[in-house]
From TrEMBL:
Protein name: Glyoxylate/hydroxypyruvate reductase A
Pfam families given in the database record: 2-Hacid_dh_C
Record domain D-isomer specific 2-hydroxyacid dehydrogenase NAD-binding: where: 108-281
UniProt keyword annotations, A-Z: NAD, Oxidoreductase, Pyruvate
Biological classification of the source: Bacteria, Pseudomonadati, Pseudomonadota, Alphaproteobacteria, Acetobacterales
SUPFAM superfamilies found in the cross-reference section: NAD(P)-binding Rossmann-fold domains (SSF51735)
Organism of derivation: Roseicella aquatilis
Alphabetical list of Gene3D superfamilies matching this protein: NAD(P)-binding Rossmann-like Domain
C-alpha cells in the first residue's frame, strides 16, 4: 500500500466534503482527506489541495504542498490569491462528463432561444394561449462558439448534430469536422458578423474580460442572441441588458455573473427575453471529478506528467 498522503479540500462546504471523502475512499484508500478548516490547523501534513475558491494566503501555508487541483474547469477562483505559491502545478478539471453536461446545457440554451422558450414560459405562467409561429429552423441560425476547448468543442459537435451551422473562435486555429474555425483577435469581427447565436465558453483571463460588450455586440447581425455560460467576467451585463432592451439582441441565456449570485433586484431576472440560471451549466458529480483527480495523483506519483495543467503564460 502507498504511504499516507493528505489532501486538503475546499469545495462544496461540509456536505460536499463528506461526499468527496466517500468517493476517494473507494478510489484510493491511502489518500486521507482533510476538511479545509482542519487542514489549516494541520498545515504541515498537506500534500495535495482540491479547491474551488481558497481564501488568499491559505495555500501558501502548506509547506509540503505538491499539486493544486481545481475542482472545476476554470481555476480563476484560485488565481485570485496574490500569495498563490506560483511554483506549484495547478491541474484544471478536464473530464468528458463535464464537457458532455456543458454540451447538453448549451444545446438546451440555444434551442430555448430558437423556440422562444422564455416567451412560452411567461405565457404559461399567466395561463395565456400565446399562439405564434417561430420563424427559424436550426439550419437557419448559425451558432458561434467563443472558445473551442474541452467545453466548446463538445458543445460545437452537439450543436452540429442538431443541424445548426457552427463557427468557432479560439486563440489557435482548429480543424473540427463541420465547424468553421476563426482564430485570434484579428478574426473576431468576421466571426461575430457571421454569428446569429453567440455562445461564450472562454476561460476567464485578462484578454477575455468583457469580450462581450456594446462594441462587440454591435458586430453581431441585428436580432442575434447571446448565451453566456463561461464566466461572468466575459460580459458587461449592462451592455447585454441595453442590447436586449434596444432590440439588438433578441434573447439571452445567462448562467454566469460577476458577482454571483446575481442580486435579486437585478432587472435581468424578470426580463421578458432573458433566461437566468444560477451557474449550473455543467456540474459534474463529485464521483466523476474524484476519478480524474485520483488518476492524476496516481500518474504523478509514478513520475508521469500531470494532465491539463494551468499554463501561466497563456493564463488558462
Ligand atoms: P479550455 O482551456 O479547454 O479551452 C479554452 C478555449 O478558449 C480554447 O479553445 C482557447 O484557445 C480559447 N481561448 C482562451 N483564451 C483565448 C483568447 N484570448 N482568444 C481566443 N480564444 C481563447 O477550457 P474548457 O473548455 O475546459 O473550459 C472553458 C471555460 O468554461 C472555463 O474556463 C470556465 O470559465 C467555463 N465553465 C463554465 C461552467 C459553468 O457551469 N457555467 C462549468 C465549466 C466551465 P486555444 O484552443 O487556441 O488554446
Amino acid at each position: 500500500m502507498a504511504d499516507r498522503r493528505v489532501m486538503a479540500v475546499k469545495s462544496g462546504g461540509e456536505a460536499g466534503f463528506a461526499e468527496w471523502r466517500d468517493c476517494f475512499a473507494a478510489l484510493d484508500p491511502s489518500l486521507e482527506l482533510l476538511y479545509w478548516d482542519e487542514a489549516l490547523r494541520r498545515p504541515a501534513e498537506i500534500d495535495y489541495a482540491l479547491v474551488w475558491d481558497p481564501e488568499p494566503g491559505a495555500l501558501a501555508r502548506f509547506p509540503r504542498l505538491r499539486v493544486i487541483f481545481g475542482s472545476g474547469a476554470g481555476v480563476d477562483g484560485i488565481l485570485l490569491d496574490p500569495d498563490l505559491p506560483r511554483h506549484l502545478p495547478i491541474v484544471r478539471m478536464a473530464i468528458p462528463e463535464a464537457a458532455q453536461r456543458m454540451g447538453e446545457f448549451c444545446c438546451w440554451a440555444v434551442l430555448s432561444l430558437l423556440k422562444e422558450a422564455r416567451r412560452l414560459a411567461i405565457a404559461q405562467s399567466k395561463g395565456e394561449w400565446d399562439y405564434f409561429e417561430p420563424p427559424y429552423r436550426a439550419e437557419m441560425r448559425s451558432v458561434g462558439v467563443l472558445g473551442l476547448g474541452a467545453m466548446g468543442t463538445r458543445s460545437a459537435e452537439m450543436l452540429r448534430a442538431l443541424g445548426f451551422p457552427v463557427l468557432g473562435w479560439s486563440r489557435t486555429r482548429k480543424t473540427l469536422p463541420g465547424v468553421e474555425s476563426f482564430a485570434g483577435a484579428a478574426e473576431l469581427p468576421a466571426f461575430l458578423a457571421r454569428t446569429d447565436i453567440l455562445v461564450c465558453l472562454l476561460p476567464a483571463t485578462p484578454e477575455t474580460r468583457h469580450i462581450v460588450r456594446a462594441e462587440t455586440l454591435a458586430m453581431l447581425p441585428p436580432g442575434a442572441a447571446y448565451v453566456g455560460i463561461g464566466r461572468g467576467s466575459h460580459h458587461v451585463l449592462e451592455d447585454v441588458l441595453a442590447a436586449l432592451d434596444g432590440g439588438r439582441l433578441s434573447g439571452a441565456v445567462l448562467d454566469v455573473f460577476e458577482p454571483e449570485p446575481l442580486p435579486a433586484s437585478h432587472p435581468l431576472w424578470r426580463h421578458p427575453r432573458a433566461i437566468v440560471t444560477p451557474h449550473v451549466a455543467s456540474l459534474p458529480t463529485r464521483a466523476e471529478r474524484a476519478g480524474f483527480v485520483a488518476r492524476a495523483i496516481a500518474a504523478f506519483e509514478r513520475g508521469e506528467p500531470l494532465p491539463n495543467l494551468f499554463d501561466p503564460a497563456r493564463g488558462y
